[in-house]
Write the structure tokens for this entry.
Amino acid sequence: MDIRYSSHFEDAKKYDTSDLRRHFLIEKLFVPGEIKMTYSHIDRIIVAGITPTDKALSLEGSKELGCTYFLERRELGVINIGGAGIVKLDGEKYELNKEDGLYVGMGVKEVSFESLDANSPAKFYVNSGTAHKTYPTVKIGLDKANKVKAGSDEECNKRTINQYVHPAVCESCQLVMGMTILEPGSVWNTMPCHTHERRMEVYLYFNMDEESNVFHLMGTPDETRHIVVRNEQAVISPSWSIHSGVGTKNYTFIWGMVGENQTFTDMDVVAAKDLR
């Protein structure tokens, strides 16, 4: 498990490119036959890419979690961005096709992941936050996600926000998770940008070809920075940071948030004229 510690915004002002990438970028998430996991001390979120091939892969308790099994004190959300696969929860199977999601509540002892075809493996993207109460497991297909249309062609940010783990869809303790799909010709994921002091966020960018990238914007509004992100890489975004990004082409990203509340609209908008 890769451990990332919190950074104060005054310290982050002094980071060069390599420092920014080391602290905030998760470069390799989907490795065939492996679980790649990052634990951030920012609100104690766990980000994982799980790519089973010829055998199942399981989430286990660990010293880092201080528990006997992974979901003893946690909940998780998963969205599959690869081939068809199965998530097994205490023996009960949930088949997830591409773009299917699943919310799993605290207390499930055995959590494993399988691919239906090792030559076209599932790519399970997982966000996990600490939990205080057990809520029911819910499978959420893309068609069941709460959809919010946003942006315009003129602003180059026309997109559909698909809310999977969200109060409008299912109950959770603090985790909120979804997938935003940008339409062709749109490249901004949000502008004007914003901060949300009460929640941190992790972005997974994907559906990008080898020649494309996203410039993920971060930093305080008066000290902006950027991280160049490529296909299937993720960025940890602290609550003090602006949330925005622009790609060389349209793309898709999964966002996951944990923190003080679950209010999706609880954000402080920063006007473009006020950015530095």
Observations:
- The chain has two helices and 23 strands.
- The chain has a mean pLDDT of 95.
